Amino acid sequence: MSVKPLSHKSWVIYEDGISREKMRFQETIFTLGNGYIGVRGILEEGYEEECAGTYIAGIYDQGKGQSSEIVNVPNPFRVEVYINGKKLSMDNMKVVEHRRILDMKKAVLSRHTVFTDAGKRYEYQSRRFLSLRNMHLGVLRFSFRALDGDAHVVVKRIIDGTTRNEIQAVGEPIKHYAVTHASDTASGVLYLEARTNDLGILIGMASSGDMVTGKFQPAVETKCYTNGESVVREYCFDARKGRRYRFNEYISIYTSHNFEHDVKSACLNGVELARKQGIARLLRKHVRAWDRRWQNCDIGIEGDLPAQKAIRFNIYHMLIAASSEDIDVSIGAKALSGEWYKGHIFWDTEIYILPFFIYTQPEIARNLLLYRQRRLSQARINAKLERYEGALFPWESAASGKDETPKWWRGPDGVLIEVYTRQIQHHIVSDIAYAVATYRGVTKDHGFMLDYGAELIFETARFWASCVSYNKKISLYEVKEVTGPDEYHKGVDNSSYTNYLARWNLLYAAELYNKFLEMHPNRLKKLSKKMDLSQNEVEKWRDIGNKIMFLIGKNGLIEEFQGYFGKRNDVIEQWDKKGMPIYSKDEEELKHTQLVKQADVILLLHLFPNDFTADIKKMNFDYYDARTTHLSSLSPCIYAILATELNDIDKAYKYFRYAVNGDLKAYFGNTELGMHAASLGGVWQLVINGFAGVRVKGDILSINPRLPRNWQSLEFKLVWRGNNTSFRVSGDKVEVLLSSRNKKIKLPMSIYNKACYIGAGKLTTVAK
Ligand code: IFM
To answer: Which of 331, 337, 347, 348 to mutate to test the pocket of ligand 1 (most atoms within 8 A of CB)?
Structure first.
């Protein structure tokens, strides 16, 4: 069973016509990436409003900034075309035709633009991609036509070393590198090398290209030169009216980060090899790699073309942000599509994005978890610095694993605010542990747990044991002065989300310890020695876990944190056309109310779906839904999941439409700064956990679909316990197809609460 290619339309995102106000938004939407490099969808020639962003995963620098940020490296895709000395650009000329198409299936961005000047039209077309087969390779093909008369043309191919991190919440733009070398080879290959400020990471870029010669080749004068911080190859020729002049470019990018060989040679070899293969072959390989990538993670929706397209858009942006190679990086809050939040990695990755990878491409999930595990030593140091034990993962993380949260930030109203979450948004610690446990539960990758996961789980439990304080009066442990997911209320005591996850973390660690004691005593002995861990300490974790305060009333209503119910009992009273809340945005005032910025208690109910009854879920959903502003993009998807569990499919669909289009239709408000990566993953969870009703119960996969009315069918794939499994939900039936080499396999599942065993290679149908 494979997801039907409904129509080409559901794979493409268009831009028709050009609008200055939307340029930065489009740049984000049209980002290309291969998990290693991300390039915003700028027009090659540039324009006043552009934010030409090229990012390489894992390359951070602080320079004069508040904390380290992902480096906007030189722009390797610059092309300038001059007609009789005047540059083709929306800044200089009128644009009379403009269309861009992002083909999400192939990750190729194509463009057609016609400019006019002095009554004459000039056409520029381009196509580019970042190879998924070779993460160091980019390809650009462009062409030019003078439509109304002959013209004298100069084409400049440029590697532009003038880029900076323009987008700063606080302070001036920062250039995080210095160009150290710009040259060209005898055969016209451009090479630019730059060095980052702090760590001196070398970034090398080479570009090799041709003007494609045809029957009517004009006399072309070609020269290469450096121009300040850029390196240029220039073609000068007389263009004949209506004739198309084509150019091919092969771009190779290497850095000295995690790469032991000579950067320059790698770049030069890279372009030479690419050139030998040619664009058509490189494109074929790239498209095949993308086909394979989509194969395991596409979602098919029949009956709702806008939703089909939007869900693919969400998945596309997660895929382009994740490398299939282990390059010791994780996914930032803006993925590789922008420099807002400085390319930092938040809990967004583990709680929102990771489930998509765990269930569809577990090897990528593993690499993302390894990124945290490799920073465990730094997390131990972070804990010590804050006078805790165990591991304190930073609220905002970059390359080193130190806390990179900037001290100052600019709020939505433009006012400077001191960031108070830095040392106290401790739920990140158990969010990461939770992701490790989810990975283990879905994949049964015991090797990962033995080699890496257990240590992380134990150290995070240790952190919580050192973070709680015992309240003798009530014989309970408390966690004081933290900030939960709801950031309107900072520095609160006994945040229910935080305490519940801390409790889970401690008890899970104790259980894991006992399992290891039984099954892997020698490994445990070694690890215990390394960590100086004793059985007594583990018993203490269990005791604390069982006695952590959790503010749930007799009626099942969970208090978000201690004292929350004493706040002004404001509720949402107005909604906009999309059904989203209208409320005052004054955070100073909001903190005195019960209004909640984003899913907090409701997120807890989603993460532990089997721990709470339907009545408890309903009571809390009704209470918090009436008080949540959804100011954060991390919120609507989670409310929608809960709504599906409560069978309120219309409400779920309302939140789904908002969340799935959050960036595509700019509902979230600041897409120009980059994609809202957490929401992308949250929307995937909404479709799978919510509408498809996929949950792990005990040790088996349970499926209880409840589709929106207009969806005739939903198709998706999951890798469950290492087996590729396809699902199709339509009407009142679920079809499952398991592909496994083990022909004798019988995977237990629960579908519509009916126990069944899925064998390999034959379609199993279960009716409601
Ligand atoms: O991690 C989130 C946080 O929960 C809400 N503000 C934005 C952060 C980054 O996405």
So the answer is: 348
Q: What is the pLDDT of residues 132-147, one digit of tens each?
A: 999 999 999 999 999 9
Count CB-CB contacts under 10 A for residue 177. Answer: 25
Domains and CATH numbers, the chain: 12-295 (2.70.98.40), 375-551 (1.50.10.10)
> What is the Å distance from ligand 1's center to 80 Cα?
38
673 CB near ligand 1 (under 6 Å): no
Model confidence at 632, in pLDDT bands (50, 70, 90)?
Answer: very high
User: What whole-number distance in Å separates Cα of residue 204 and Cα of residue 200?
Assistant: 12
Instruction: Judge contact between 741 and 5, C-beta under 8 A.
Output: no
Distances (CA, A) of 411 to 68, 117, 140, 391, 408: 20, 43, 39, 30, 10
Catalytic machinery residues: 487
CA of 712 to the centre of ligand 1 (A): 35
169 Cβ closer than 6 Å to some ligand 1 atom = no
- Cβ(353) to ligand 1 under 6 A? no
Q: Round to whole Å and give the CA distance between 638 and 275.
A: 47
Residue 3 has pLDDT above 70, yes or no: no
Q: Which atom of ligand 1 is nearest to the CA of 677?
A: 10
Give, in degrees to the nearest 5, the angle at Cα 680 between 674 and 686: 155
Mean pLDDT of the chain: 96
Query: From residue 24, how far is each of 40, 47, 672, 737 by CA, in Å?
Result: 9, 11, 5, 43
Residue with CA closest to ligand 1 atom 10: 333
pLDDT in tens, 724-763: 999 999 999 999 999 988 889 999 999 999 999 999 999 9
pLDDT level of residue 411 (50, 70, 90 thresholds): confident
